[in-house]
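From the methods appendix. Each design record in this collection lists the tokenized structure first, followed by the designed amino acid sequence. Records were kept in a plain field format so they could be parsed without special tools. The example shown here is representative of the layout used throughout.

RECORD:
FOLD TOKENS (622 positions):
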């Protein structure tokens, strides 16, 4: 939550900061601000609103300057910027970052939560420091100014600051009397730095830096950096300098652009066939006897395993649920569960060396998933991470990482990373089942063959977007939606309902169809639409019974049925046909119309889509 940008060196610093903030706006968009270190001091500009409005303010302010070089940012020596997802303190200009210390020495931006902010504030107030905001961020800002005044040494002040604050944070800092420097620090929140062509940068998200360089320094927890035009120096919280090697990130900066699309979400939905194809190709090899999975996990990895846990949050948790279903279908001798990370980490669950825990996180930065992973590692559990972001915290902290190859996902609502997770989890589960000897060669060939046709099936669905668009327009005035399904479809009902909540702000619930009559059916009437998932499998008849029960209560029914299931028409008001898949692979295909339905419903209702209210792309606070 919150996007941070810093830049120092021989470039148009102002432009780099604004550009970097625009790229990270999906991380938080309650307010935005910049502090620019110009020859005569800080220029701190902030507002409640979006980065585009901030840009206007900054440009207006620059236009008042007299010389051409001033107008094009030539006098700006260094700068920091922030786009906020509010935690402590309301959404006001005063609470917007950057914050300045009362003596004007420090300008600081922060992502995370400072847990002992109140204590620091109380102590500094007794020293006569006047706080002006309601934020937790002002405490480290004032504290750093106090320490710097005492020591006159930036490294020492930073070291003492980082050892005196608790919680999770990324801090990026300008010192008024050190115009050619930026300082930053990281504890449990993301921060990446880079140096190229006489300019140093830092940001929360690597995508903000890709147009300058692909060689990135991912800071570890407990690390600080000093950035200058000459390069980046790294230090531990003990003040000792550390050598760090950059990691090369292969993402292309164009991948983080909207191109011809109106919204990132729509572009990312379209990328799914390609992403699925890439994932399959990267993790399978063609052999003389057919196709083999190749996840490069040690053979002995499953030896002695009694329990498997798939652990994640939000959409990634629904991918975890799907993986759990798949594993259980072929091996009922294992204790397999999907777990919500924010709950798992506080429960007293049995785990250890006989447990395999798979942590799934698009960003690799979700605070609860990281906390759960650390807990599992501390208990000696065998861990695997599945993440989309190379160099992310999860990627670095877990020894065995499998990367989804979705490329950067900018739309706040996850789409292509979900299908990439489903696909990679399917391959992982198949490999684990094979190690255990519970997957027959026939089933393996059937499923790998089924996976191979998934991209074409996804593509065929995308080409029928107009049908979904018409459905979305027809039902957009429903007072709410129930998504129902059974077994493989249950994770999809959850995902379909979540997408509608996130971007269309419509009440939408997901139920295992058999649960409807245990309570939720009481809510049905002609204004509450039921979206029923009825793939071509052994549960079709049971699903159709559930649908009839809903119809008898006058609920309009949209049926997502298997291609060719003409008979199903009589059970619904509208039908959309989905290509037939292998039963276990249905989520990978069935999700596409649900994403398009949420997208077009949100569009019909006139919502912004890529940056839904109150949300942020990576949830780095607990
Ligand atoms: C929903 C969505 C969120 C994330 C969740 C976990 O569209 O994007 O529910 O899935 O915040 O995020 P990651 O996967 O980054 O751990």
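DESIGN:
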């Amino acid at each position: 939550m919150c996007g941070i940008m810093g830049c120092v060196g021989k470039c148009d610093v102002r432009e780099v900061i604004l550009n970097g903030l625009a790229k990270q706006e999906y991380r938080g968009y309650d307010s935005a601000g910049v502090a620019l270190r110009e020859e005569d001091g800080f220029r701190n500009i902030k507002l409640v609103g979006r980065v585009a409005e901030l840009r206007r303010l900054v440009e207006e302010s620059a236009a008042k300057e007299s010389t051409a070089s001033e107008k094009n940012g030539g006098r700006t020596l260094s700068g920091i910027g922030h786009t906020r997802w509010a935690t402590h303190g309301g959404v006001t200009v005063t609470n917007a970052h950057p914050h300045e210390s009362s003596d004007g020495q420090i300008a600081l931006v922060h992502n995370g939560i400072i847990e002992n902010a109140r204590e620091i504030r109380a102590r500094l107030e007794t020293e006569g420091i006047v706080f002006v905001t309601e934020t937790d961020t002002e405490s480290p800002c004032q504290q750093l100014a106090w320490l710097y005044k005492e020591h006159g040494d930036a490294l020492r002040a930073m070291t003492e600051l980082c050892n005196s604050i608790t919680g999770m944070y990324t801090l990026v800092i300008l010192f008024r009397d050190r115009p050619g420097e930026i300082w930053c620090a990281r504890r449990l929140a993301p921060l990446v730095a880079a140096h190229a062509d006489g300019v140093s940068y830092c940001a929360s998200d690597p995508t903000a830096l890709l147009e300058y360089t692909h060689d990135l320094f991912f800071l570890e927890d407990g690390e600080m950096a000093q950035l200058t035009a000459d390069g980046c120096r790294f230090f531990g919280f003990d003040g000792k300098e550390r050598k760090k090697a950059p990691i090369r990130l292969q993402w292309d900066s164009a991948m983080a652009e909207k191109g011809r699309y109106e919204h990132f979400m729509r572009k990312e939905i379209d990328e799914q066939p390609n992403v699925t194809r890439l994932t399959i190709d990267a993790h399978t090899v063609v052999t003389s006897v057919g196709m083999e999975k190749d996840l490069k996990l040690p053979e002995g990895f499953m030896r002695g395993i009694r329990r498997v846990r798939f652990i994640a949050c939000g959409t990634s948790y629904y991918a975890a649920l799907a993986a759990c279903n798949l594993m259980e279908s072929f091996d009922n001798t294992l204790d397999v569960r999907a777990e919500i990370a924010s709950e798992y980490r506080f429960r007293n669950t049995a785990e250890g060396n006989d447990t395999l825990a798979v942590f799934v996180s698009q960003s690799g930065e979700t605070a609860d998933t990281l906390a759960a992973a650390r807990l599992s590692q501390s208990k000696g559990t065998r861990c695997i991470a599945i993440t989309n972001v190379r160099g992310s915290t999860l990627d670095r902290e877990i020894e065995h990482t499998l990367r989804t190859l979705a490329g950067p996902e900018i739309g706040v609502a996850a789409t292509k990373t979900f299908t990439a997770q489903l696909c990679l989890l399917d391959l992982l589960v198949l490999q684990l089942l094979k190690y255990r000897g519970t997957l027959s060669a026939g089933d393996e060939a059937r499923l790998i063959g089924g996976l191979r046709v998934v991209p074409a099936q996804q593509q065929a669905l995308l080409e029928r977007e107009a049908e979904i668009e018409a459905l979305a327009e027809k039902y957009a005035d429903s007072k709410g939606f129930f998504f129902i399904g059974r077994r493989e479809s249950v994770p999809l009902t959850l995902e379909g309902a979540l997408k509608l909540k996130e971007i269309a702000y419509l009440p939408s619930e997901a139920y295992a169809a058999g649960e409807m009559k245990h309570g939720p059916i009481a809510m049905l009437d002609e204004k509450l639409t039921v979206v029923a998932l009825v793939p071509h499998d052994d549960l079709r008849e049971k699903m159709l019974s559930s649908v009839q029960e809903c119809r008898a209560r006058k609920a309009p029914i949209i049926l997502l049925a298997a291609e060719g299931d003409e008979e199903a028409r009589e059970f619904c008001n509208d039908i959309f046909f989905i290509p037939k898949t292998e039963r276990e692979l249905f989520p990978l295909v069935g999700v596409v119309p649900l994403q398009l339905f949420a997208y077009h419903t949100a569009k019909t209702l006139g919502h912004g889509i890529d940056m839904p209210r109150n949300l942020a792309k990576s949830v780095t606070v607990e």
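APPENDIX NOTE: The chain is about 35% helix and 25% strand.
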